[in-house]
Amino acid sequence: MAQQIRAVLFDVGGPLDTETIMDRMIDEQIIESFRKHGVAITDEEYSAVNTWAVDVFAPKTYHSIIWRIAKGDHALFDRVESELMETVPIRNEARDHFELRDGIRELLAELSNERLLLGLAANQPTVALENMERLGILKYFEYQEVSGSINLRKPDPRLLLHSCAGLGIEPGEAIMVGDRIDNDIVPARMLGMATIRFISGRHARQQPRSRSEAPHADVHTVDELGSAIHEFIARPRNVSVDNMPE
Question: Which fold has domain 2-19+98-238?
Answer without folding.
Answer: Rossmann fold (3.40.50)
